[in-house]
Design goal:
By secondary structure, the chain is an alpha/beta fold. The chain has helices at 3-16, 19-26, 30-44, 60-83, 100-117, 169-175, 223-231, 245-250, 279-297; strands spanning 49-51, 56-58, 92-98, 121-127, 141-145, 154-161, 163-167, 188-192, 200-205, 208-213, 215-220, 236-240, 254-256, 265-271. The chain has 3 domains: 3-83, Arc Repressor Mutant, subunit A; 92-160 and 265-297, 3-Layer(aba) Sandwich (D-Maltodextrin-Binding Protein, domain 2), CATH 3.40.190.10; 163-260, D-Maltodextrin-Binding Protein, domain 2 (3-Layer(aba) Sandwich). The N and C termini lie far apart (55 Å). The model has no long low-confidence stretch (mean pLDDT 87).
């Protein structure tokens, strides 16, 4: 049994959701698709798919093996293309992970450019504020905000962001502008609980860090909600600079307490480097480095 060939069949079956559709995609008889998958399951000693007359789904083992199969097939294909001189043409599935709001605002445009330029690349974009394990979850590139722990991964910094305090012009007209963090005690605040406590915010000044109690009128669990509330005059909020860059540029929000902002946090592209990077990863990194560096320079 050619295991790589069997993996290609398994990937097609998983992607298409049926044996017949996989056969059409691979231009292979239905009986051959069924036999190759059965041979692969027999070799592994586990069921990869569960099929009935009405349902088709991957088993837990199938989901794990699918990710590994994609990686192996991509690497074999990349090695073959490199040998024949085609290593500059990317193909296969690229998996990218990024924080929720940053991914929506800034990584998605890079992904769309990647898809537009390279027709043989499919992208899976995973947006979550929880840091995924690149190796365990077969992620090719991850965007990380903040200091990175020591690891065997490669990081490329593309910019910085910082925590900013903002409010709408209407709120400032109504309640005044705080001059020091201590003034926040007399203001209404919108707390994004993923970034700061709803009870107190920490600032940096000449005397070091200070923790200032705030009156939270509204607590939310996403930055988008905090920004919307602030734009509509609910109160003062604190988010990361990239999350309000467009609102600050339009003037719908005003930046406050700049002298008390903490040190900026790095934004990095994180990836595993094991020998020569696949063409799909190299091409995405080139686009992301250029695009994100330019975007973050304006925040």
């Amino acid at each position: 049994m050619d295991r790589v060939d069997a993996m290609v069949v398994f990937i097609a079956v998983a992607d298409e959701g049926s044996f017949s559709a996989a056969g059409r995609r691979l231009q292979m008889p239905l009986s051959t698709v069924s036999r190759k998958l059965a041979d692969l399951e027999a070799h592994l000693g586990v069921r990869l798919v569960t099929r009935t007359t009405r349902q088709f789904m991957l088993t837990d083992a199938g989901r794990d093996y699918l990710a590994a199969s994609r990686d192996i097939v991509d690497r074999v294909t990349e090695a073959e293309r490199a040998v024949v001189g085609g290593h500059m043409s990317p193909q296969g599935e690229l998996v990218v992970a990024a924080p929720l709001v940053f991914g929506r605002l800034h990584v998605m445009p890079v992904v769309m450019e990647m898809i537009d330029r390279h027709r043989d690349v499919n992208v899976r974009l995973v947006l979550s504020d929880t840091n995924a394990n690149l190796l365990e979850e077969n992620i090719d590139v991850a965007v990380r905000i903040g200091e990175l722990p020591d690891s065997g991964l490669t990081a490329r910094q593309v910019g910085e962001v910082t925590k900013v305090v903002v409010a709408s012009p209407a709120y400032i007209d109504r309640r005044g502008k705080p001059q020091t963090p201590a003034d926040l005690r007399d203001h209404e605040c919108v707390s994004f609980e993923g970034l700061s406590s709803s009870l107190a915010w920490t600032f940096t000044g000449q005397d070091g860090a200070s923790r200032i109690p705030v009156r939270t009128r509204l607590a939310v669990n996403t930055a988008d909600a905090a920004v919307v509330a602030a734009v509509n005059g609910v109160g003062i909020t604190r988010v990361l600079s990239y999350q309000v860059a467009s609102q600050l540029a339009r003037g719908s929000l005003v930046r406050l307490l700049r002298d008390y902002e903490p040190a900026a946090s790095p934004v990095s592209l994180l990836y595993a480097r094991q020998g020569r990077l696949p063409a799909k990863t190299r091409c995405f990194l080139e686009l992301a480095i250029e695009g994100l560096t330019q975007v973050l320079a304006g925040t």
